[in-house]
Each structure stands twice: as C-alpha cells, then as structure tokens.
Design a protein that fits this description.
- With 209 residues, this protein is of the alpha/beta class.
- It has one domain.
- The chain contains six helices and six strands.
- A six-stranded parallel β-sheet has the order 2-1-5-3-6-4.
- The radius of gyration is 17 Å and the shape is globular.
Length: 209
C-alpha cells in the first residue's frame, strides 16, 4: 500500500466541504460533537497548515465551544499571544519539549483553576517555532502526553511512537483533564475523518464509523 501521506500530497480534495474539508459526498459534519468544557484550547496554527485538508486541529476547535484558533505565519508580523496569559486560567503549552512534564491526573490536581492549553499546530518544523519564537510564552509550563499511538492507519506519516494527529493529541489531553467521554467523542470524530479521507484516496480502512 502506498504511503497515505504521499497520496495526500499527490491529490487535492475536489469540491471540499468548508467545515470538515472532505469531498462533499464524504462529509462528516453530521458527526461533529459540540462540547462545552471548562478547559479552553487555543490552537496556534501556521497559515500554510490551513491549506491542508488533512489538518485535524481545526476540527477540534469546531467541536469545542470554549476554544479558539490563532493563525501565525500569514504576514511578516509576529503573532502576539500575550493576551492569553490570564489569571483566570492555568495556562499550559502543549508541546513535547525536553522540559515538558507529563499531563496526568496528578499534574491537573495541583491547581484548581480551569486549564487553558495552547496547542501549536502544523508540521514539526512549524509547530516547534511556537516553542521558542513566542517569548511571551517562555514562562508557561510545557506539558505532553506519553500515550503511544497504536493506530495502524494515519492521515499522515508519523515519525515517532507517540506521534499523533492534532485532534488525537487534544482528545487524549482532554481525556486526562475532562474525562473519558470527552476523549472518546473527539476520537470518534478523528476516526470518521480518517475513514472518509482514506475512502477518498480509494483505500479501504477496514473499520466503520
């Protein structure tokens, strides 16, 4: 089977749905959950990533009421994220740096404030720049999840055992913070996106929605 990531680069989605970015005949908008959580997600996405129909971070934002998306790289001006630092939330940068702590129940219990997760989105090079270019985030604790990705099929090639699509990673993070039902709702959405994307490439993923 040809690498799905290479297939994605070869093919462009024809007549994509503006919400789920799949071909309209494969649209999954009817399976979007609507989750109003205490936890807030801020997706910091590179402008080039917005052009990729395999992006899943935007699907998370469409499903999470108390969340938003910030776009970086659209102009030469640096994106200022300083307004995200507020005492109303315990803000964490969701990025697997060397100094990142594992996001687990013990870490969540250390502070009673609701959590705001700043989530860099893009390819590895694009996402890594959020980690060191935004000096306003230099004192924000880094967190990561260490759950191995056991999926046999992916929207894009993964280079590490823990490598996940952004929606998958957010699902696991919110599972720790908000509970398993939230995690499963987002993973169901990811699986729907994965299945329909592979169908659009002429592949049979071998599982149902």
């Amino acid at each position: 089977m040809e690498n799905p990531d290479k297939l994605e680069r070869k093919r462009k989605t024809k007549d994509p749905c503006p919400e789920c970015f799949l071909n309209r005949q494969l649209c999954i908008c009817h399976v979007f959950p609507l989750l109003n959580l205490k936890t807030r997600i801020c997706l910091v996405i590179h402008a080039k990533e917005l052009k990729r129909t395999t992006n899943t971070g935007r699907l998370a934002i469409k499903s999470l009421v108390n969340s938003e998306m910030r776009v970086r790289g659209a102009t030469k001006e640096s994106l200022d994220l300083s307004d995200l630092i507020t005492s109303n939330y315990r803000t964490l940068l969701f990025y697997p740096s060397d100094d990142a702590a594992e996001l687990n129940k013990e870490l969540v219990a250390q502070d009673s404030r609701p959590i705001q997760l700043i989530v860099p989105d893009g390819n590895w090079r694009q996402a890594s720049k959020v980690h060191y270019r935004h000096h306003e985030l230099k004192n924000i604790p880094r967190v990561m999840i260490k759950t191995p990705n056991t999926s046999k099929l992916h929207l894009r090639a993964e280079n590490t055992l823990e490598g996940m699509a952004t929606l998958q990673a957010i699902a696991h993070a919110l599972g720790v913070i908000e509970g398993d039902s939230v995690k499963q709702a987002l993973l169901d959405l990811y699986n729907a996106k994965l299945e329909r994307t592979l169908q659009g490439r002429g592949l049979n993923p071998g599982f149902e929605l």
